[in-house]
Design a protein that fits this description.
Distance between the termini: 77 Å
Oligomer: single chain
Number of helices: 4
Shape: flat
Radius of gyration: 31 Å
């Protein structure tokens, strides 16, 4: 194993030269600078790393207007097993930021901004990791004027045993994170998605996948309105796109656990419709799924809380449970529905609703009424140039006196967030040590000594000595009075 260095004055001047020289097990260190080329990592088990996180910039040169050339390519292409890209800034991409297309590939700690297509896609690979990346301004072909197809900001397609964790995605004109077609046993956890036009998180034709402990926040920036319908997008969606029925499985065994949604148009959405006018639409069946422990916060643009539509193509929902969720709906737009379920196959139990849900969504042990959150109506906003959303998750925690606290199994709290805690003041000391006062004798002796030294030093010392005498007198009076 060797360390190869790339950059001005280094062993290799270009990424292409280093890629040609790299051997399995090597690490390529890319020094600070702007590299106007693609990184094609086609040697197995090579780690590519920015020497200083974010300082090695891979610039794609996209002009923000031309759509087509290189649209589906990656500015970083991880095409060999075990290839890793760590800590780069990747921007102005004519296609995608990073493409993972081989097993055991990893994209960690990268900053991706302004892509004509999506930010990251993993396609037909296994055991991949997408971690701690920041993605902004994705699917910008929409802004460039092509509104035919908009890619998701982060897509998992035909991925087995993949994980996306700790990422921030904001300002995408498609989906946020898509646990997508043909994927099995993937985990999407600990991510934050904000302001993505189509939806935030998606189960689409995938099996045994988990979306857990994520955050979805919508600021209602007009740039990310759905456009055609005028409706704000949904946060968490189960939606099998029927057009791909010959190639991919129908979803089953997918779980939505302990997530937070704030302000989206629909908070949880199961999409279904009939095939009409040549449009394939959605053919979604909930099968063996759990929607559990989520906190769903309505905002001024929210029109539905839980919208669970029945399958209209002969595949009814089955073996699905909805429990321990918190649905705060007081901030929704006028006339919005806190929930809607058509069909059966879904069991509800022990959910907290701030408004009474429909009869077929009520369950044993429900709470209906105030849920005691800290500040669920708090404003959220974009942070300017970065496109990232500013919000405080603590606003959506239960207060200490909330009925959610201890309502769950084994005394746990319902919803995605633990209650706020304040440290109690320490108990008073039952046997405190007496406080010691000043050593008055020492102070008086010190003042007298200073006066004598001043008197010896110069004639002005006599005046100083008189002043010190007055001080001595006052100190003695204070000591006696104490």
């Amino acid at each position: 194993m060797a360390e190869l260095r790339v950059g001005e004055g280094q062993q290799y001047r270009t990424l292409e030269e280093a890629a040609a020289a790299a051997r399995p097990g090597d690490e390529v260190i890319v020094t600070a600078g702007i590299y106007r080329e693609r990184l094609v990592a086609n040697t197995p088990d090579v780690t590519w790393r920015s020497e200083t996180p974010g300082a090695a910039v891979l610039a794609g040169g996209w002009d923000g207007q031309t759509v087509g050339a290189g649209r589906h390519s990656g500015q970083v292409q991880l095409s060999a097993p075990g290839a890793r890209a760590v800590g780069f800034t990747i921007r102005n991409c004519p296609g995608r930021g990073i493409v993972l297309s081989a097993d055991r590939t990893e994209a960690i700690g990268n900053i991706i901004d302004n892509c004509c297509d999506g930010g990251i896609i993993a396609n037909d690979c296994a055991d991949i990791l997408i971690k701690d990346n920041v993605l902004t301004r994705l699917g910008m072909s929409w802004v460039a004027g092509e509104r035919r197809v908009v890619s998701g900001s982060m897509n998992l397609v035909k991925v087995r045993n993949g994980r996306a964790t700790g990422n921030r995605v904001s300002g995408g004109h498609g989906e946020g994170i898509n646990c997508g077609r043909g994927s099995y046993n993937c985990r999407v956890d600990g991510n934050i998605v904000s302001d993505c036009s189509h939806l935030a998180y998606y189960f689409n034709r995938c099996v045994d996948c988990v979306i857990e402990r994520n955050v979805a926040v919508l600021t209602r920036d007009p740039a990310f309105d759905a456009g055609e319908s005028g409706n704000w997008p949904a946060a968490y969606v189960f939606g099998d796109e029927a057009a791909h029925s010959d190639s991919y499985p129908w979803q089953r065994g997918n779980h939505l656990l302990n997530n937070l949604a704030v302000g989206y148009g629909t908070l949880v959405d199961v999409r279904n419709n009939a095939e009409t006018q040549g449009r394939a639409g959605y053919n979604t069946q909930l099968a063996g799924s759990r929607i559990e422990g989520n906190t769903l916060i309505a905002g001024p643009g929210t029109r539905a809380g839980m919208m669970l539509r029945e399958n209209q193509r002969g595949r009814p929902h089955r073996d699905t449970v909805v429990r321990h969720n918190v649905i705060y709906f007081d901030g929704a737009e006028a006339g919005a529905a806190i929930g809607r379920l058509t069909g059966g196959g879904v069991t509800f139990e022990r959910n907290a609703w701030t408004q009474q849900p429909p009869a077929n969504m009520r369950g044993a042990g429900d709470l209906v009424g105030p849920v005691g959150l800290v500040n669920p109506g708090a404003a959220v906003a974009g942070s300017g140039a970065t496109g990232l959303t500013v919000f405080d998750v603590d606003n959506y925690r239960p207060r200490g006196d909330s009925p959610l606290v201890g309502a769950g199994p084994d005394g746990l709290t319902w919803g995605a967030l633990e209650p706020v805690t304040t440290e109690p003041p320490p108990d008073p000391d039952p046997d405190p040590e007496p406080e010691e006062g000043p050593d008055w004798a020492a102070l008086l002796e010190l003042a007298a000594a200073i006066g004598e030294q001043l008197a010896v030093a110069n004639m002005a010392g006599e005046a100083a000595r008189e002043a010190l005498g007055e001080l001595l007198l006052r100190l003695d009076e204070y000591r006696v009075g104490e």
